[in-house]
Amino acid sequence: MILSHIVAVAQNDVIGVNNDLPWDIPEDMKFFREKTKGKALIMGRKTFESVGHPLPKRLNVVVTRQKSYQPEGAVVVSSVNEAIKLCEGKKDEYGDEVFIIGGGEIFKDTIDMVDIIYLTRIHREFDGDIKYPTVNP
Q1: Domain presence at residue 39
Q2: CA 15, 20, 24, 30: dihedral to nearest 10 degrees?
Q3: Which one, 26, 61, 75, 137, has the greatest CB density within 10 A?
Q4: How far, in Å, CA of 124 to CA of 10, rounded?
Q5: Among the listed residues 5, 4, 20, the one whose alpha carbon sits nearest the alpha carbon of residue 130
Q6: DSSP label at 45?
Q7: What are the phi and psi torsion angles at 116 (to 5°)?
Q8: Residue 120 within any structural domain of the chain
Q9: Number of structural domains found in the chain
Q10: Entry pTM
Q11: Which range of residues forms the domain containing residue 120?
């Protein structure tokens, strides 16, 4: 299984502000849609809520500590490791690559586990409260 991050990052490493993207870049959203279509996605609860709905034609796996959280159209697990195991069991249906799509805590927890980082660098600084973790080569 291939574990990947897919993320857009500002020059100052900002990836979000108030649980939303600080920019609107249609080309990047198109890249995200094309790359992740038909795949398994792992995300935190806040990321799922910021999207507002399950992403179509994908397995939406939401990591949260809230035991009662049960959004329609998503599978809820309590840890990143549980999410990865679940996705491994769905390889036949969703393929060998699993995408981690955020947010900040999930990226931080998995930065040393991923095989590939699809990183769109935004050549501008943005105000924000969520940053992408430092990548150790």
Answers
A1: yes
A2: 80
A3: 61
A4: 6
A5: 20
A6: H
A7: -135, 140
A8: yes
A9: 1
A10: 0.96
A11: 2-131
Residue located via tokens 């924000």: 128
pLDDT in tens, 97-120: 999 999 999 999 999 999 999 999
> Is residue 137 domain-resident?
no
The tokens of 46 are what? 């806040």
> The domain spanning residue 35 has which CATH number?
3.40.430.10
Contact 6, 63 (CB under 8 A): no
Q: Residues 99, 6: contact at Cβ < 8 Å?
A: yes
In a domain, 136, yes or no: no
What is the spatial distance between Cα 118 and Cα 133, in angstroms, rounded to a whole number?
A: 14
Q: For residue range 22-73, list pLDDT tens digits in order.
A: 999 999 999 999 999 999 999 999 999 999 999 999 999 999 999 999 999 9
Query: Dihedral angle at the C-alpha atoms of 110, 116, 25, 133, nearest 10 degrees?
Result: 30
